[in-house]
Amino acid sequence: MMDRIFALLGALNMFIAVGAGAFGAHGLKARLDAGMLAIWQTGVTYQMAHALGLLAIAALAPRFGSSLLAGAGWLMFAGIVVFSGSLYVLALTNVRWLGAITPIGGLGFLAGWLLVALAVWRGPTA
User: Fold this and answer.
1) CA–CA separation, 126 and 104 (whole Å)
2) Sign (positive or negative) of CA dihedral 19, 101, 42, 33
3) Nearest to residue 105, comparing CAs of 82, 121, 76?
4) What's the pLDDT band for 99 if we cut at 50, 70, 90?
5) Residues in Cβ contact with 57 at an 8 Å cutoff, skipping those fewer than 6 apart
6) End-to-end alpha carbon distance in the chain
7) How far is it, in rounded angstroms, from Cα 39 to Cα 61?
8) Domain residues of the chain, as ranges?
């Protein structure tokens, strides 16, 4: 079941990231300055990368079946919400304190990838 959940979350986040990228390139180009547009694009890039990470976790889950992979998936999903979400809101509102919470999402990404590595290192569960 874990593989299905993370495949679904990965696919939905790829859908959202593609839409956000197109919206940034076409709908926000005339409304945001170059700096805010770059912040928006950073959110899109990290959302796409970690949506692919969720899909990778879904693909690894049947082979490794580790609770570490479940933790990794939830950390990546939380990272997308906090990291990319805070950058999207920052770009749209220019509320600068949001930049202070963005690294929390980055820590979620780092911890998630570390758990993926640990799950693979430990090998398949019996």
Assistant:
1) 34
2) positive
3) 82
4) confident
5) 3, 6, 10, 69, 72, 73, 76, 116
6) 17
7) 33
8) 1-122
Which of 1-5, 59-63, 87-91, 115-119 comes out lowest in average pLDDT?
A: 1-5
Residue 109 has pLDDT above 60, yes or no: yes
In whole angstroms, give the CA distance from residue 66 to residue 79.
20
Query: Could you give the maximum distance between any two Cα atoms of the chain, in Å?
Result: 56
HEC profile of 42-96? HHHHHHHHHHHHHHHHHHHHHHHCCHHHHHHHHHHHHHHHHHHHHHHHHHHHCCH
Q: Please, which contacts does 20-26 make with residues 24 or more away whose CB atoms are closer than 8 Å?
A: 20/44, 20/47, 20/88, 21/48
> Rounded distance, CA 69 to CA 56, Å?
10
- Cβ contacts of 100 within 8 Å, gap of 6 or more: none
